[in-house]
Amino acid sequence: MVKFNRHAPVRIRTAEGAPGFPREPRAELFLLGVSLMVGEDAFYEGAAERDVRFRALVAQVAVADPEWFAGFVQWLRTGAMVRSASVVAALEGARAQVAAGIPGSRSVVDAALQRADEPGEALAYWLGRHGRALPKPVKRGIADAAVRLFHERSLLKYDAEGRPVRFGDVIDLTHPAARDERQGDLFKHALDRRHKRDNPVPSSLTVLTARAALMALPVDQRRAVTDPEVLGAAGMTWEALAGWRQTTMDAAAWESIIPGMGYLALLRNLRNFDQAGVSDVVAETVAARLADPGEVARSRALPMRFLSAYNAAPSLRWAYPLEKALQQALANVPALDARTLILIDTSGSMNSGFSRDGTLRCWDAATVFGLALAARARDATVVSFSDGTKVFPARAGESVLAAVRRFKADGYFFGSGTNTERAVREHYAGHDRVVILTDEQAHWHGAGDVTAAVPAHVPVYTWNLAGYRAGHAPVAGARFTFGGLSDAAFRMIPLIEEGSRERWPF
To answer: For the chain, which domains are there?
Structure first.
């Protein structure tokens, strides 16, 4: 996962003035990619600066190591579940590879587009940044994705009038070849919608026909439509149902649409179910889906999703299924033997946003992962650190979500500076490994390496949640830096300790 820098480390500075250590381009791109929210500021680095750095790294690595780059983009989208950064990487990488005469970027662009609105988003990005001239690999890669992703339900969900690039625009500009006659009818209808042609919906498009019938109902008759099969046949999502009813979603409305809701939609709406008064019988079906291992695995939901839902839902009826779901989502967290020191950075900069909606902070994400890792370790010491430090005591049988709540309630979020060196020095006591969850922006406290108190042969794993350029320790020997907090990343601890030192997760 980490490519080690075998040369003498170049000294730079972290944002807080401590000695920093640069990473080789692939490692820096990996770290920035998994932690980047395109167009959003980080605590120490503006959005424009981060985006420029990301594009420059993409162009460099895509040309220098095309095979690695192709694997990285696909993993970033489907493994780490990072949408915007993977789309930007695919497009900017394709541009650089076309200029350098390197083939293969068509499949990279296709692989980065995994949701039906993303071909349009990719085109919107390209048109806004590079104009209407589409290189063939970009054009064909987007067309391939359109054939794979465009169908009746995705048209209803994502082809909204307010979008700058509609399904019809994608078809006009990339000319995808429909896979069958029915998709050909869909493409023609998408073009009619885009260009406001008053043509009837083709009879082969049964979902669109059913939706049109529902839309023709007078508003005062719509509340009476509560048959899940009728709504499902018309491709109704909960968002579409709320708009179509033109009134508050009451318990009957939620109960009619819940059977067709996706897993992540259920997670986002637990509070709404409670406020509407959804019955206990229906709530039990929701709880069963939340806790179902197969549903959790298919959703690819990260632990932070469950923490966010747990924090938002007022009813205790969701607590146990969410805890079970979180445990299922953490199946890839390794069961660590021996003794592990886990240091959770709760400095001021870690109070910056981690989720796009702002409901989770970086220190929330660090805490849920740190405590989950501790729960899976044979002998773990958990420490919250900022300028000062505080050991978080374990409680036998306590769930991860309950531990997260206790961490917050008992004052373990400090919000001051980042004295990583002190935390390591004060709490390392012969542990067999050290895990640090941080943004790496350590203060300068006279130490050239914040991990100096740990013997050189003992592995120190740093998870960086922000993707800043300068690391707090050199990446060499038994010092490893990872980006982001996907479950897949935790697999690297046993891989490294088994000797697979230069493995990437793709």
So the answer is: 12-203 (no CATH), 339-497 (3.40.50.410)
